[in-house]
From TrEMBL:
Transmembrane as UniProt keyword: yes
Xref: Pfam families: ABC1
Keyword Transcription regulation: no
CDD domains: ABC1_ADCK3-like
Name assigned to this protein: Putative unusual protein kinase regulating ubiquinone biosynthesis (AarF/ABC1/UbiB family)
Annotated family: Belongs to the protein kinase superfamily. ADCK protein kinase family.
ABC1 atypical kinase-like domain segment(s): 89-331
């Protein structure tokens, strides 16, 4: 039943509408009285919603799981209790019968699978919503991994994208999330990035590109792919004997150095970012394997993102700014990356970045039971939600990939110092960038002088900001509360008008179907009235 197109769309959209209505009613009932008790009830509500979403995602599979994984990294728009419930949502679904997989193989190869394979495992080695992986052996004795697209995947993903279009339209009309997210561009990014997973030939091409790019990196291996057996729905690649990189018992059993592995893995990811081009958009533990000799193997290149050369230069500004404590430069880089809108409060945001970096450097962020750290992270989330900060759609999957990757690093080495690992590589990269220009430009020399003297120059400003902070925060919060109250009133009114429009439109459809003329007139009047109200409310 979960593969019936209209049923999937109905279940996804109805859940989204129910969530929107629950949130709007809760905010309406508790407007102006946000107490600890109300906050507890709010957390209970969003936790129930997250559990419902997770349960449906595991039942439906497809795009729902990948969207849940994406939402679990969006602390800027999702409540913390929602994020905590979705954390760890994995793309694991029950295997389909082997005979169905064999049928797909033979459809794609146009011959019996025994013509190419001497053996094919009875059970899937790995199973996800898009493909299943079996172990096989070619006629020449080579052991291979055979990835086969699950039957009906194309239809399921198309249905999910149709449902997402409706959900996104509802989110644009009835929620404040449009402040942080360009939903139209995000939808395009989702279709291009996730849709590419449906074509295994594309995955082969991506894997080959990564193999060429990191051929000289010691301790890193990209599997060999076999063109002659690969089609749009079948991928054949080298079989790798190893374990997930987060398998600590495997690491200890083979006497491997966790710190050295985490450092090498970090450099592998940093190289993808600093030098632009493609990056692995799904670097979870299952897609990063570890061989007994410590070699890191990167697999599954279905989800690939791209960083342009222009954005790579902006990342340089941010990296230099953080390393040299020049937080104005960090904001310049964020503006170049289109994260900040023109009317952002730069002083407030610079202070937030500085506090976060200081907390990380002092290891406070590792003490997750610390009240100070919890307050700091809550302040960061509040600032991101209330300031004109947006996530450009092209960075949606980069943010998700970074979050997943950092999680893997901390499993490997809980005490890993990302700044210490990044500093020499960033400086080397910056030097390479400038050597590529031939000589240092005047603006480069000037910026490096400013950066080098950053901490000394920043002290007077920090002292003034410290003295002015209480008044500045009070003024900011007063203005924020007024804007939020007015925005919420308008948003809720538009939401109820929109819902009434949908209900009355359904009434029109039913009355036409059953040809009930009185009900048709009544529904039409209500439909026109609710549309007028929706357009009138701003």
């Amino acid at each position: 039943m979960n593969q019936v197109t209209y049923l999937r769309i109905y279940r996804i959209v109805s859940m989204a509408i129910r969530f929107y209505v629950q949130v709007a009613l809760f905010q309406r009932r508790n407007r102006g009285k946000w107490t600890p008790v109300v906050e507890q009830r709010w957390n209970e509500l969003v936790t129930r919603q997250a559990k419902e979403y997770k349960e449906l995602a595991l039942k439906l599979g497809g795009l729902m799981i990948k969207l849940g994984q994406f939402l679990s990294t969006r602390a800027d728009i999702m409540p913390p209790s929602f994020l905590a419930e979705l954390e760890g949502l994995t793309d694991r679904v029950p295997s389909v019968p082997r005979k169905d997989i064999v049928e797909v193989l033979e459809q794609e190869w146009n011959v019996e699978h025994g013509n190419y394979l001497d053996e094919l495992s009875d059970q899937a080695i790995a199973s996800a919503s898009i493909g299943e992986v079996f172990k096989g052996r070619l006629k020449n004795g080579t052991e291979v991994a055979v990835k086969v697209q699950r039957p009906g995947t194309d239809r399921i993903i198309r249905a999910d994208f149709q449902a997402m279009r409706i959900v996104i339209w509802l989110a644009k009309k009835f929620t404040p999330f449009t402040k942080q997210v360009d939903f139209d561009q995000l939808y395009v990014e989702m279709t291009e990035t996730i849709g590419a997973e449906l074509n295994f030939v594309r995955e082969l091409q991506n894997g080959r590109a990564f193999a060429d790019r990191f051929a000289e990196m010691n301790g890193v291996h990209i599997p060999v792919y076999y063109d002659e057996y690969t089609t749009r729905r079948v991928l054949v690649m080298e079989w790798i004997e190893g374990a997930r990189i987060t398998d600590i018992s495997f690491i200890e059993e083979h006497g491997l150095n966790r710190h050295e592995i985490s450092e090498r893995l970090f450099i592998l990811f940093l190289e993808q970012v600093l030098y632009g081009g493609q990056f692995h958009a799904d670097p979870h533990g299952g897609n990063i394997l570890l061989k007994p000799d410590g070699t890191i193997v990167l697999i599954d290149f279905g989800m690939i993102g791209t960083i342009s050369e222009r954005d790579s230069q902006a990342i340089l500004l941010i990296a230099e700014g953080i390393l040299f404590k020049n937080y104005e430069q960090v904001l310049d880089g964020l503006e170049d990356l289109r994260f900040l809108l023109p009317n952002a409060d730069r002083d407030l945001l610079a202070d937030a970045v500085e506090r976060l970096v200081a907390a990380y450097e002092s290891n406070e962020l590792m003490q997750m039971d610390s009240f100070v750290v919890e307050r700091l992270l809550k302040d960061m989330q509040d600032i991101v939600r209330t300031q004109p900060v947006q996530l450009p759609a092209e960075f949606a999957f980069f943010g998700r990939a970074t979050s997943i990757f950092v999680g893997v690093l901390h499993v490997l080495d809980p005490k890993v110092d990302l700044f210490a690992l990044a500093r020499p590589r960033v400086l080397e990269w910056a030097s390479t960038k400038r050597e590529g220009k031939g000589i240092f430009g005047k603006e480069d020399v000037f910026r490096w002088i400013l950066n080098s003297t950053g901490p000394a120059r920043a002290f007077p400003k920090k002292l003034i900001n410290f003295l002015d902070e209480p008044e500045r925060i009070r003024h900011y919060l007063e203005n924020k509360e007024g804007r939020e109250r007015e925005h919420q009133r308008n948003l809720q009114s538009r939401m109820f008008a929109g819902i009434f429009s949908l209900v009355s439109f359904s009434g029109i459809s039913l009355s036409v179907w059953f040809w009930h003329e009185p009900f048709l007139w009544v529904s039409s009047v209500f439909f026109v009235g609710s549309l007028w109200a929706f357009r009138a409310i701003r």
